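User: I'm putting together a teaching handout on how multi-component assemblies are represented. Below are the sequence lines for each component of a complex, exactly as they appear in our records. Could you produce the 3D structure of the whole assembly as structure tokens, so the students can see both representations side by side? Please keep the chain order the same as the input.
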Amino acid sequence: MSTTKLKSVDVVVVGSGVVGSIMSMELASAGLSVVCLERGKQFDIDTDFQKPNVYDELKFDRHSDIFQNLARDTITFRNNNSQTALPMREMGAFKPGEMVGGTAAHWGGNARRFLPHDFEMRSRIEERYGASFIPEDCNLQDWGVTWDEIEPYYDQFEEIFGVGGKAGNLQGKKIDGGNVFEGPRSHEYPNPPHKKTYVTTVFEKAVRELGYHPYPVPTATLSQNYTNPDGVSRAACTYCGYCTRYGCMIGAKAQPTNVLMPVLLKRKNFTLRTGCSVRRVVHRNGKAEGLSYQDASGAEMIQPASIVILASWTLNNARLHAFVSVSAG
Amino acid sequence: MTLSDNPIGASYLYLLEPEIRFLEAAVEHLIPTDELGPGARDAGVVVYIDRALASAWGGHGRQYRGGPWQEGTPQQGYQSRFTPQEVYRIAIREINAHCKVEFDRPFAQLAGDRQLRLLEQLEKDEIALPSLSSKFFFDMLWRNTEEGYFADPLYGGNRDKVGWKLLGFPGLPSGQYRELVTSSEPYHAEPVSVLDVQTGQVPVDAEGFPKHVIIKRNSNKES
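Assistant: Of course. Below is the structure of the complete assembly, with chains in the same order as your input.
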């Protein structure tokens, strides 16, 4: 079968989920030409997530076409080395996404930050328990970035997505009612926490009396009407209760399709191609030079690029890396 | 020969007459009609199963259907080569054949206590069917019975929202939840389904939320 080699661009990104959209946004804003390849379809709130059908629990909990179509492609898995890995034939609790916006279309909006020590897990454990504490064959590592380095970007993310919550550590000052164990934040959340249900207030009182420090979970579902720094406005949550596994019918829940894509799709140096399944990283002399993929019509394409970004989530990224290793011999 | 009672006057897209008879008898044991309300049969669960089998799910339209084929662990989920359509067709035929050998008549014509005993044996995998595990079929039947009893009436089951009334589930959310979310008062409303809104049985407000009719419950606490 013939392969069409396209005109080279600055950046090609695999996946249009949270990571792919953010990378596309940052690089397109810096003036680079960006092509984003998404295996799923374009969805929009006004049709796909319209009332009343969006409240169909059978559809969205079990059968929805916003999840990966396993008839085309799936993963195999096993729980330990003594078992044989078998294909995931039917969607269970693990629901990979397959649409513009990726899995973040049906996430719950739970928008926590890592704790400072999460970034330096190996160092912190060695510091506390000694270097011999971690077994030799354990591949635990530090992330390579620290809390202080990443904090401004958490801040930026919360501004763009409109996260609501209550700070528990503002520039080192502990604040009762927030998460007092979190790392020092440079700013308060851009939005307040959600209203507390009656059950929440009962639970909060009970655990506070036991000496714990309850705090509202930060969420990227809006607690009030909000316009983000990119000028994208979204409406406040209606407390309908259909978040995880559902698309938000009013767009209160932040997802790439309602925070980043509205801005990105207006940029002339950004191109989104849907229905494109990336097969291989094209590389030479140890350097990635582009992506080979099958487009929506089934045609084989190559998109050359100076920068190749794998943003198709852990399993797919690892698979694309493995193909590189195999083909490099 | 008379057709099955067809209590809700439905059309059937996939299931055949002996299968409808089998399922009407079987699901009524799984969720029986009792003092709490109508059971699975009267709730239209067999119609639900028929629609499910005729849908993309019944032919595994969105499931992976290639090899390797091997019996997996429970955690590895569905590993059968049969689609749900095939599972129902094969299992019902083979269970009826078993019943004819043992009791000289098909499942649907057996006495109720005999049917219940057979279902218990299927659940425990105690009946050896030629083509598939009897527990595998039972588990699928139970899963679909639950779905048919509790899924939106849109799919032919949960007729008159009997499943939701049993649970006290209000169905589609109301636009008032914003104000009510902090309330300590229990919330009792007539359930509203997708089907109700599609067919105009329940009006919606400007935002598209259905108007909930609150059920007044007399509290006997004070008396």
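A couple of points students might notice: The CA atoms of residues 76 and 188 of chain A lie 43 Å apart. Chain A has a mean pLDDT of 94.
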